[in-house]
Amino acid sequence: MAVARMKRVFILCHSSLRDDVIMRLQDAGVMQLEDASELYPDLTGEGEAGLGPVRKGAGHIEALVEGERDIGRAGEVGEVPARLGEDHRTLEKTLDELAFTIKYLGRYVNERKGLVETFVTKKAGISPEDYAFSVTQLDYKGLYKQCAADDAKLGELQSEASRLKEQKAALEGWVDLDCPLRDLRDTEKVRIVPCLLPKKDLRRLTSMLEGVRAVGAGVAGRAVAPEGAVPEGVVGKGVVGEGEKGAESEGVSGKSAAGEVTENPAALVEVVSEDDRNARVVVFYARGEGEARVSEILSECGVEKVSFGVIEGLVKDEIKSIEQRLSEIPAEEQEIRKRAESLLPQRVRLMALYDHLYERLRRMEVRGLLGRTEKTSLIQGWMKAKEVPELSKRLADLNGEIEVFAQDPSPEDNPPVVLENPWFLKPFEVVTLLYGNPKYGEIDPTPFLAPFFFVFFGFALSDAGYGILLMLISAWMIKKMDIPEGGKMLFRLLFLGGASTVVFGALMGGWFGNGLDILPPALGGVRDFLKRFAVVDPLANPIYVLGVSLGLGIVQIWVGIVLKLVSRLKAGEVFDTVMDEGSWLFFIPAVIVFALSSTLRLGPITPTVGKWLAIAGAIYVMVAAGRRQKVIFLKPFSAVMGLYGSIGYVG
Hints:
Number of strands: 11
Structural class: alpha+beta
Oligomer: single chain
Strand content: 5-15%
């Protein structure tokens, strides 16, 4: 029930045995390797160029066969085919391509996930024959190219659909424009500008443009535009100026927004459409002296010039063309989807190949951690002290030149931490790991937190019915679901929590809430039997339950302080430990004694004795807290703040 004792292990072997040793270490999974060059810089590492950090979290699939777990191990099914390349970078690139293909095809898996699968990922299964085919004959490159091309095409279709929808939305406001867009281009004497502006600024725009006069642009009292300046079909709701057929352009009405005929204007405004916020207009204005002023007015009125790009025909025809194309895109996407679904049977094989190559990559990376001479290789790392003899036996049957040495860690070393606890405490390691592993040489808190977690879990739920359900669900998950060991540990913890809930639920009479009270008369015997276990009713005696909770909490705090005290004493911090942890170990019981002596008879301990014990404890805590403050006039403040820490314990 502590942090496992670790040893630094050195394995010295002939270079010809290097790969076999690495493979056996990988199978055993008992050693955390180190870079040999850190301790022995004179030894030359054998890592490939560009060796990157070891990947984490690999393992898409497990090959489960009788008598052998990893049938894809190099040397059994066969080495990585030459077509995949032995170079480290090539292998990493291959893994990236496989990962992409697996992820891409995963988007088309149509399996409906139940409640359990939502939280727990099921492992895929594969036969030994399929596994062997996957690592020797599978055309993963062709699958990757097909999936990459389809993914790129899918992206193009989605981008095109998005662009067309935006284009359609922009054109819909111009659908009443009955002339081809090619005609909305500047002429020799007139500029033609399609515009978008806030509806509230439309009258202001027309009013300001009325004040601009064209010099020699027409006959007094009429708006004269050059021949063909206003394209036929540009018919709107409001204009500046009055046109005539031919010279003044058919379709341009002759009144301003104010309803008055203007004299010799330099601009015409045709309103194409309006909505609640914006107006779409076409502005015609003559080139010449008034041109600059018209441009200024357009800017002042917040006019946004509209460009139709390469579109030349009628707006309504362009919208029809867009709608036609938008109706075709889903069919093309469906074709890609069908192609991906036809490749789904290959996904499990790709996952198997990924795992196989990942293990190969790991071995290549391990070689980069080795020290070597011309004929020998050195492997070093950390493992549990009790497993060193077993490792020596595993390597001895290689019948080669192998030596295994082990040494205890030095004070400067930082060995990995492995927790060792009996089977019934193992599930509670999940709670410990939530807050991080203890350091090597420190106390493992698991055995001490386990009873408190067990009690508090059941005390908090306190319903035997729900506890039984929690136990049944947890047992089913452990037994029936193929989940990683970490997941099983969590469900074992929940199973124990369910057992605790049953115990405390029965003691407090909780069976699915007030389930016993609503049982039919025919089950009266069951109700009476279950009620016999109840010793307290939380609703009738809440103060009693609160007192038990408070008492358990105080015990937990006290145990935690004791553990910290022991840990610091082992580290040689005697004085600081006596002052810091010692003060609280004295103060907390003193306050409890004072509280109890004031309400209960404690024999020789009178309320006065309890009061002075509490005062002495408070002074002890304040002195301990204030001693670290170097500024003298701040020491009282630090002392009071130290006593304020008791609120944290109560919280």
